[in-house]
Amino acid sequence: MDLIDDPTPGGNLPEYTVTEVSGAVKRTLEDAFGRIRVKGEVGRVFRARSGHLYFDVKDERNVLACTTWKGQIPNLSVVPEEGLEVVVTGKMTSFGGQSKYNLNVEEVSVAGVGALMAMFEKRKKALEAEGLFAESRKRKLPFLPEVIGVVTSPSGAVIRDILHRLRERFPRKVLVWPVAVQGQACAPEVARAIAGFNALSPGGALPRPDLLIVARGGGSIEDLWGFNEEIVARAAAASEIPLVSAVGHETDTTLIDYVADRRAPTPTAAAEIAVPVRAELRAWLDGQGARMSHCTAQGLVNRGQRLRDLARGLGRPQSLVEAPRQRLDAQDHRLPRALTSVVQAKRHRLSEASGGLRPAGMRARLAEARRRLDRDGARLAPGLQRLVNRQREELRKCAIKLRPEPLSRAAERDRRRLAEATARLSRCASAQERRRAERVAGAARLLETLSYKATLSRGYAVVRGDGAVVTRAAEARKAVSLEIEFADGRMTPGGGAPKRARKGDEPPEQGSLF
Questions:
Q1: What is the CATH number of domain 18-111?
Q2: Taking the CA atoms of the chain, what radius of gyration do you get in angstroms?
Q3: β-strands 100-110, 63-68: how paired?
Q4: Helix 113-129 vs helix 230-238: angle between axes, to the nearest 10 degrees?
Q5: Phi/psi of residue 47, each to 5°?
Q6: CATH for the stretch 137-280
Q7: 51 CB contacts (<8 Å, ≥6 apart)?
Q8: Residues whose CB is less than 8 angstroms from the CB of residue 2 and which lie 6 or more positions away in sequence, other chains included
Q9: What are the pLDDT digits (tens) for 107-135?
Q10: Which neighbouring-strand residues pair with 93?
Q11: Cα three-residue angle 168-156-185, rounded to 5 degrees
């Protein structure tokens, strides 16, 4: 069999599917670059509902799309923010679904101290605008907390300094929540520690602290950066337990210092702020007790002297009771005679009252009451009879109104009105039907007048070529067969008598009459 060259340009090239091309590009891109570090400015930042983070890293001329998956975000030491200069580390890959390439970022670091300070100022302004730094929301520290919670590294010198200072000043119960104080895990662990202390129940098996201290020793801005993360600042602001920030030395400043209820220049100073000195309190209590004893004794002396002064102004007790005693003796002498006269007066009044209660008098009163009752009963009977007669008359009048004759007359009158209304309605319906019939007949006459049939009766004809209406001589010459329609039928030239027009034939198009 002879081979015939394909005349199509490039016809001998192999054919690939779209998936094969996308896979080849993906493998080439990943093999050529692998794991790389890219420096640039963060552009658009978008966090999807799925939790994945999408952002751009750009320079003066180009933009590189970057992606960090949901599981990789907790491992980032710095979360990208728009306008931040960073160095990102990851692997180049491509997404065939959209014909795009991007960088899967596994690590983000800030490019230089200047960028860190710019980010610090930006976050500080944003949190200050929300009111998290306001003095009105800062709580007063307890004077002598029972339990103190410390958020710091358990292996550093900071916790030893705090415990040593507390033992010197005023020993208290201390709960230590171990956290990382620098690196990627610092911010989330500190935020969880603050929230964890607040979640403890007061009076539970593990007591809830009355005061929190977040402490760390000094260091560079990169070492202290975990305490500048927004998650830490917001956790400190949301804490219901008063919080003291003791991060770094006196010259170091972090965002948690602005949000905390009190800032200590060093961790040791935080312990001094947390509790007073027990020896000083004891001396103060002794002094207050001595003052109280002195004031009490002096008050008793003053009140005793005042009581003695007032007693000298009073008379002798014997002279005060002599006059009341004489009055009592006089009343005692008059009392027997008074009792005797009162009893005699009461007996006389009883005799007078019992005289009117004799049986004869009672019988007379009862007879008089019976006569009044009979007289009132005689007067009541005619009144009752008149009331019954009046109500019977009213009932008779109502019964006259309820006879069937008036109801029958009213029903007959309504029946006549209904018949008259029915007749008027029938006449109106008939008249309306006649008007509509006349309108239909007029429309039919108008339709007949406007029909092309009337035009044919005046001597015109319709010419059709190959079944279509012909309006030009050139069209008639091109037609294979012609048909002419007259008023009395149709005919084909040279085909004999005209055919009668069939009912239902389509009317000619406008302009087909000649």
A1: 2.40.50.140
A2: 60
A3: parallel
A4: 30
A5: -105, 115
A6: 3.40.50.2300
A7: 70, 73
A8: none
A9: 888 776 666 777 788 888 888 888 888 88
A10: 102
A11: 130
